[in-house]
Design brief:
The complex is a heterodimer of chains A (about 450) and B (about 400).
Chain A (H helix, E strand, L loop, with lengths): L17 H4 L7 E9 L2 H10 L14 E7 L1 H6 L4 H4 L4 H5 L5 H7 L21 E7 L4 H12 L3 E8 L19 E2 L18 E2 L20 E2 L19 E2 L9 E6 L1 H12 L3 H12 L33 H5 L15 H11 L8 H7 L30 E7 L24 E2 L3 H9 L17
Parallel strand pairs in A: 5-6
Antiparallel strand pairs in A: 1-3, 1-4, 2-3, 4-11, 7-8, 9-10
Chain B lengths: L1 E3 L2 E2 L14 E9 L20 E8 L3 H11 L1 H8 L11 H7 L4 E6 L6 H17 L8 H20 L13 H42 L9 H8 L7 E9 L4 H20 L12 E9 L4 E9 L2 H20 L8 E2 L3 E2 L4 H11 L5 E4 L6 H14 L6 H10 L1
Antiparallel strand pairs in B: 1-2, 3-4, 3-11, 5-7, 6-8, 7-8, 9-10
Helix pairs in contact in B: 1-3, 4-11, 5-12, 6-8, 11-12
Classes of the chains: A alpha+beta (about 450), B alpha+beta (about 400).
């Protein structure tokens, strides 16, 4: 179990959606179409020939890209066998607005209750998300072309457009600094052993279904008896060679539309700082853990190669700071080094893969003890997250607006089309005017949600 | 009795938990084990075992006193509850009936031995008062830190003498308790020493038995039905802490019975003498936990009170103390396959998670004396109080103390 996997099956890059591997920095325009299926047969026939961009290196770089993701409702609408759907993670099957307990875990309560969402519940639950990317000036044509082709089987319920803001997220902080490095070559030693050092290389199985994860395990996904796939359209499972692996090369995509209340963020900081510009910037940096230019407070001058080891009390970078919470690196140990930072490894694992293949990731991120400031004893409990009414104190600066999980995936050949995949939170802006448009008028700046460069956020 | 699903109202009329100032946590759960039939995988017929109503509490001081107190001050409500139990003697002596039906704890873990409810509440009030009082301006020198601390110490003294804050000194630990602890500390290793020669002689056989059983014992970890899972989740995440109650059958045969009991004795020993101040192995988020045998050691019930969400609690254990889970629980029917007693098992994430959810029982009513406070809060508050005591501190200590606020 702990041998290196140099002899492992290579990754079928042509069966992986390109978005898992590439950030499309050159494709600066993008929009996401949230669709409902109106005619299953027509939908299937479009999906079967949809020009999904694969993860194979292309030369020259593509001028457009297209990715497809399904919700579990979408799978049902496509008449995928129910037992096959049920083989995916329970969170995916249930959907993000599934029940009150999940809403409590995710903080989707009170003003953020799913009932208030723009989309993602009831008849406004998308079946399919089509993600379009294009080089400057080419999105419109690309979108028209795709929209025309899929008009027969789908109905558009929401179009999320995006905008680029110089790699800074809407509060004005440099974004996309700390990124996981995915082990595409399958070189990382496999097996169930603890790793003490913090680094960015992460097992493929944390992103793609059908590959071993950081525990050295294959996560559950639907597997089919060979007679269900006589034409061998599907790859065989590595951990069950006789069975067809429906999940392999797919991943889960989480799509949540959030509103960042930029104005109130800076207004509150101005109030706290009493008009002192310098103090205001320092307070903001303390909340995030990085200065606006991305420089981490824990290690000035060192963008990403640092840990919190010599700042256990959070004197330089507060323990509740956004980047420290989201990625503790290896600092959740009691001072004095009593044993290895296993939790950190696990947390790194979680964080790096917002949309990895293990179940419950979103929920875990919201509730695991190490990142949860109340569990770590912070008084100021969620400095930069949404309000958590359970704590009874309001520190709301990041309010989910309309959202939805589109853990995606599915399969494909049988259904049609290809696999899909995707990474976590790419922030999107709704094209439906009201709140955003109004806000834009109110504030001249980068209020609007950016397209964050590649993976998540700068943690 | 509940104010929210599963969350007891401390002032409810039936059992006003809030009035019992020594009670940390309490719960009522119906132990209606849906996994009784699991043992059939070992070709043992499904036994007929009772459904229990468990009333479980964690209190300061001797449990006997707590039971007396409950029977005295909440007798009517308790009688109403226990009236649903077989053989409950309604007009009889309630405390005696409770004592007679009291289960024996096989292993007991307490996060911080000696920290009382009263201390927790007083220290919380203290910490809130000080946090509201302390000046937030940056410190210019160590002397200023000293001065600021001095002011706060005076403030606390004034508040205490005005009766607005209480800082009751801890009760001395009873001598009998200390003696019992000492005896336990020595007796278990002595017993181990006595048994050692036998174990050594038998070790080839024991190892053979262990390994063959580990290789052949069937696993039983199917995912839980969604409706049942929702029912459990419906009772979670209303506070910063949550509860867990689980029940399961021991694998048949003397080997597992003895090994399981022996290991629980060791776990109890470790919890009593080693893990007494904040850590259970490396896990820091458990307030109280215990294991108890039921039905002549055919079943085990486990309960805990922990900070954070359920999924995170389980992840924490998998990552930091899977070996401990394996030691404690791998004798249960269907546990994910272990290797050499500590490896694998709970490390097989999805099987373990399915297993623990499948054995979980809804905790219909759960009370906690200090909602909103996590163990990290309790520890910080404790340090704040301790920092008040010394008459002289260094500049650095004064600064570190102020930082706690």
């Amino acid at each position: 179990m702990s041998a290196t996997m140099s002899g492992a099956r290579p990754v079928e890059l042509d069966d992986v959606q390109g978005l898992v591997r590439f950030g499309y920095k050159h494709l600066t325009e993008a929009c996401f179409l949230l669709l409902r299926i109106t005619d299953a047969a027509a939908a299937r026939s479009w999906l079967a020939q949809a020009p999904v961009t694969s993860a194979v290196n292309a030369d020259p770089l593509p001028q457009t890209a297209l990715h497809v993701a399904f919700t579990s409702q979408g799978l049902r609408a496509l008449e995928v066998a129910p037992d096959l759907c049920a083989g995916f993670s329970a969170e995916f099957v249930a959907g993000m607005a599934s029940d009150g307990a999940r809403a409590r875990r995710l903080g989707d309560i009170g003003a953020n209750d799913p009932a208030t969402w723009r989309w993602g519940t009831g008849a406004r639950t998308p079946h399919v998300a089509v993600l379009l990317y294009a080089a400057p000036g080419q999105l419109e044509a690309w979108e028209l072309e795709i929209a025309a082709k899929c008009a027969a089987g789908f109905e558009l319920i929401e179009r999320l457009s995006t905008s680029v803001t110089q790699l800074a997220e809407p509060f004005g902080f440099a974004d996309g600094i700390s990124q996981p490095k995915v082990d595409w070559e399958r070189e990382r030693p496999l097996g169930d052993h603890d790793r003490l050092d913090y680094d960015n290389l992460v097992c493929l199985g944390e992103f793609l279904l059908g590959y071993p994860n950081e525990y050295g395990l294959y996560t559950p996904r639907p597997l089919l008896a060979p007679q269900c796939d006589p034409g061998r359209l599907l790859p065989r499972a590595e951990d069950a060679p006789e069975q067809a692996d429906v999940g392999r090369n797919g991943s889960y995509l989480v799509l949540r539309q959030l509103r960042q209340d930029v104005e109130s963020f800076w207004r509150e900081l101005d109030r706290q700082a009493g008009g002192d510009q310098d103090l205001r910037e320092r307070l903001a940096a303390a909340m995030v853990g990085r200065k606006k230019n991305g420089e981490p407070l824990a290690a000035p001058g060192n963008l990403n190669d640092f840990t919190y080891e010599d700042d256990p009390r959070g004197l330089r970078c507060p323990v509740g700071a956004h980047i420290r919470r989201s990625n503790p690196r290896n600092a959740d140990l009691p001072p004095g080094g009593r044993g290895p930072p296993l939790a950190t490894v696990a947390h790194a694992r979680i964080r790096r893969c917002g949309a990895g293949s293990r179940s419950g990731r979103v929920d875990t991120l919201s509730s695991s003890p190490s990142p949860r400031p109340e569990v770590r004893g912070c008084r100021n409990r969620r400095p930069i997250r949404r309000w958590n009414p359970r704590c009874g104190r309001r520190h709301s600066l990041h309010v989910p607006y309309g959202q939805h999980q589109a853990p995606v995936r599915v399969r494909a050949k049988r259904v049609a089309g290809r696999k899909q995949v995707r990474r976590p939170h790419r922030r999107t802006r709704s094209d439906g005017r009201p709140p955003f448009a109004r806000r834009r008028e109110l504030s001249d700046r980068r209020l609007l949600d950016s397209r964050s460069p590649v993976v998540r956020t700068a943690v | 009795m509940n104010s929210q699903p599963g969350m007891a109202d401390p002032t409810n009329a039936v059992l006003p938990f809030g009035r019992f100032e020594r009670l940390h946590f309490a719960r009522l759960a119906l132990l209606d084990d849906p996994t009784v039939g699991d043992i059939e995988v070992h070709d043992v017929p499904r036994p007929s075992l009772p459904i229990y109503l468990a009333f479980i509490g964690s209190c300061d001081g001797p449990a006997d006193e707590c039971i007396e107190d409950l029977a005295r001050r909440a007798g009517t409500g308790l009688r109403r509850i226990f009236a649903y139990c077989d053989g409950f003697d309604a007009p009889g002596d309630l405390a005696a009936w409770m004592q007679a039906h009291r289960g024996r704890i096989a292993a007991n873990y307490i996060n911080w031995v000696g920290r009382t409810v009263r201390q927790i509440k007083e220290e919380d009030a203290l910490s809130r008062a000080l946090a509201a009082k302390v000046a937030r301006a940056p410190l210019s020198s160590g002397a200023q830190a000293q001065e600021r601390r001095r002011e706060l110490v005076d403030f606390v003294e004034a508040e205490v003498s005005a009766g607005r804050l209480g800082l009751t000194p801890p009760d001395p630990t009873p001598l009998s308790w200390q003696l019992a602890k000492l005896l336990h500390l020595v007796a278990i290793p002595l017993a181990g020493l006595v048994l050692m020669p036998f174990l050594i002689v038998l070790s080839p056989l024991l190892i053979y038995l262990l390994r063959t059983k580990e290789e052949s014992d069937p696993e039983l970890c199917p995912p839980l039905d969604r409706a049942v899972l929702l029912e459990l989740q419906h009772l979670e995440d209303y506070d910063v802490s949550n509860q867990y109650t689980a029940i399961g059958s021991l694998k048949p045969g003397l080997f597992r019975r003895w090994l399981g009991s022996g290991l629980l004795v060791l776990i109890d020993y470790a919890a009593r003498h080693v893990f007494t101040h904040g850590f259970l192995a490396r896990v820091q988020t458990i307030h109280f936990a215990f294991w108890a045998f039921l039905d002549d050691k055919r079943r085990v019930v486990f309960t805990s009170n922990y900070d954070g969400g359920h999924e995170a609690y389980m992840d924490d254990f998998i990552n930091k103390a899977a070996w401990g889970l394996n030691l404690a629980f791998s004798h249960g029917v269907g546990w994910p396959r272990t290797r050499w007693l500590i490896a694998r098992g709970a490390r097989i994430e999805h099987k373990f998670k399915n297993y623990q959810r499948r054995h979980q029982q809804p905790t219909e009513l759960w009370y906690r004396a200090y909602p909103g406070l996590t163990l990290a809060d309790l520890k910080r508050n404790q340090r704040i109080r301790e920092g008040l005591e010394p008459a002289h501190v260094t500049d650095a200590q004064a600064e570190a103390w102020l930082r706690l606020l």
